[in-house]
C-alpha cells in the first residue's frame, strides 16, 4: 500500500520540481515578470510551498515591488518561524520599503526590519548576511530611533568570529562612516592582507579615492589588478592616471 501511494505522488513531485526549476531559470535570466506569473499560478493550488513563496518574494524584490515582496516573505516567516533566512529576507524587504517612503512613514518599517534581523541573528549564530544588515542599520539609523555604533561593533565582532575578512570589512565600514579614518584604513588593509578578494581591494581603493589619496589608491588598484585581472580596476587606474 505504501508503494502505491508513493506511485501516486510521483507526478505531483515532478510537476512541483519542474515549476520551481522553471521559475529559478527565469530569475537567472532576469525575466522577473514571467517568473511572477509562473509562481503565482502555481501557488494558487500550492499555497504553502515554501520554495515557491520565497522565489516569488525574490522576483518581486528584483522588481523593487517591496509591498508584494513583504507579503511573500511574511508568509514564509509565518509558515516557518524558525528559519533565519526568511526573517532576514523579510527584514530586507521592510528596510527597502522604508527607503522608498517619507521619513515619518519609514519609522514603522525600520522598527519591524530591525526586529526581523535580530530574530534571524538569534535563530542562526552563523548567518553572516544578517549581521552585515545589522551593522549597516545600526550605523545608518539616527540614535533617536535606535542607531548605535556600540551595537554595530557588537555585530562586527560577531562577523569577525565567523569570518575575519567580513569582520575587518565591517569595522572598516563603521569607522569610515563615523569619520575615524585611521581606524577605517587599518581594517580595510587588514581585509586585503587576510582575504585579498576583489571586494577587499575594492573597499580599500574606494576608501582612498573618497579621501582623495590617489597614490595609495593607485598602488592597491595595480596590486589588485595584477592578482585578479579585474577590468573595473583597470578602468579606475586609467581614470586616476589621466
General description of the model:
By secondary structure, the chain is mainly α. The chain contains 13 helices and no strands. The chain has helices spanning 2-28, 32-43, 50-62, 66-79, 84-99, 103-123, 128-140, 149-162, 164-177, 181-194, 198-210, 214-228, 231-240. The longest helix has 27 residues, at 2-28. The termini are far apart. The model is unreliable at 9-14 (pLDDT under 50).
Strand content: under 5%
One letter per element, helices H and strands E, the order comes to HHHHHHHHHHHHH
* N-end to C-end Cα span: 77 Å
Q: Major beta sheet, specifics?
A: none
Mean pLDDT: 91
Runs in which pLDDT lies below 50 for 5 or more consecutive residues are 9-14
Q: Tell me, briefly, the overall form.
A: globular
Helical stretch tally:
13
Please state the structural category: mainly alpha
Helix content: over 70%
- Per DSSP E runs of 2 or more residues, the count of β-strands stands at 0
The radius of gyration over CA amounts to 22 Å
Supply the key terms.
242 residues, single chain, mainly alpha
Summed up:
The protein has helices at 2-28, 32-43, 50-62, 66-79, 84-99, 103-123, 128-140, 149-162, 164-177, 181-194, 198-210, 214-228, 231-240. By secondary structure, the chain is an all-alpha fold. The protein is globular.
Amino acid at each position: 500500500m505504501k508503494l502505491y501511494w508513493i506511485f501516486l505522488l510521483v507526478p505531483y513531485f515532478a510537476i512541483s520540481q519542474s515549476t520551481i526549476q522553471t521559475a529559478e531559470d527565469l530569475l537567472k535570466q532576469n525575466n522577473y515578470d514571467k517568473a511572477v506569473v509562473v509562481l503565482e499560478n502555481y501557488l494558487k493550488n500550492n499555497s504553502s510551498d515554501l520554495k515557491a513563496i520565497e522565489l516569488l518574494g525574490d522576483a518581486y524584490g528584483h522588481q523593487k515591488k517591496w509591498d508584494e515582496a513583504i507579503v511573500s516573505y511574511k508568509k514564509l516567516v509565518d509558515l516557518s518561524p524558525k528559519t533565519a533566512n526568511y526573517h532576514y529576507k523579510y527584514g530586507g524587504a521592510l528596510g527597502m520599503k522604508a527607503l522608498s517612503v517619507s521619513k515619518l512613514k519609514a519609522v514603522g518599517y525600520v522598527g519591524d526590519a530591525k526586529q526581523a534581523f535580530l530574530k534571524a541573528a538569534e535563530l542562526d549564530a552563523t548567518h553572516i548576511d544578517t549581521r552585515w544588515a545589522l551593522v549597516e542599520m545600526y550605523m545608518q539609523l539616527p540614535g533617536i530611533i535606535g542607531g548605535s555604533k556600540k551595537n554595530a561593533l557588537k555585530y562586527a565582532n560577531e562577523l569577525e568570529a565567523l569570518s575575519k575578512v567580513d569582520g575587518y570589512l565591517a569595522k572598516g565600514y563603521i569607522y569610515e562612516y563615523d569619520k575615524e579614518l585611521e581606524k577605517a584604513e587599518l581594517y580595510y588593509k587588514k581585509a586585503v592582507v587576510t582575504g585579498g578578494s576583489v571586494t577587499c581591494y575594492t573597499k580599500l581603493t574606494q576608501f582612498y579615492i573618497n579621501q582623495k589619496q590617489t597614490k595609495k589608491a593607485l598602488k592597491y588598484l595595480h596590486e589588485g589588478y595584477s592578482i585578479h585581472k579585474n577590468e573595473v580596476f583597470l578602468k579606475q587606474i586609467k581614470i586616476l592616471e589621466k
